[in-house]
Design brief:
single chain, 184 residues, alpha+beta, Porin, eight-stranded antiparallel β-barrel, 8 strands, signal
Length: 184
């Protein structure tokens, strides 16, 4: 009987210590994004002749979508990869193969996931640019809405490189996420 009381007294402390950290598990995302090239807008204003304007890199903005799959093996790290489509100019419809590591910050037991990420990609289709790619950094947040479903927001600074010419874009993204952890 004493063992029963002892177990009854210790059990609440054991269960409290067993709280697991929240992780997304395996996930897939679909995002839409828009980016603005602020430096290009300034360069357009300074270009006076048609020749100077023809030498400027294409696009003042870009938009597109991203589809990724990934996994979060650790509380603080996830790795995703997928495809990204970007429209920059009428002759620049770019399809990238991309990789995006994410580093989660904050309390791992929270249900809102704030993260910093890096992203990089290379062009895989034929378009006006022979050699294109991008690299960027940013911050985002995943907010679970129900079991296995949520939405995400992110802000990034990206360097889009088209045939050796770089353009810095500030981009905003919104997307949906489906994840395997139903306990969020």
């Amino acid at each position: 009987m004493k063992n029963f009381y002892l177990l009854f007294l210790i059990f609440p402390f054991l269960s409290f210590g067993q709280e697991k950290a929240a992780k997304l598990g395996t996930f897939s995302t679909l995002e839409i994004n828009i980016g603005l090239d602020l430096a290009q807008m300034i360069r357009d204003g300074r270009a006076k002749t048609d020749y100077e304007k023809s030498q400027l890199p294409p696009g003042k903005y870009n938009y597109g979508f991203t589809a990724q799959i990934g996994v979060q093996p650790l509380n603080w790290f996830a790795l995703g990869g997928g495809l990204r489509y970007s429209y920059i100019d009428p002759n620049y419809h770019l399809l990238y193969a991309m990789v995006q590591p994410k580093f989660f910050l904050g309390d791992p037991r929270d249900e809102e996931f704030f993260y910093l990420f890096g992203s990089m990609g290379t062009k895989i289709n034929r378009t006006a640019a022979d050699n294109a790619g991008f690299v960027g950094i940013g911050a985002g947040m995943v907010e679970p809405l129900s079991k296995r479903f949520g939405h995400l927001f992110s802000v990034a600074v990206e360097d889009q490189i088209l045939d050796g010419e770089g353009s810095i874009f500030i981009s905003l993204s919104y997307g949906i996420i489906i994840f395997s952890n139903k306990n969020l």
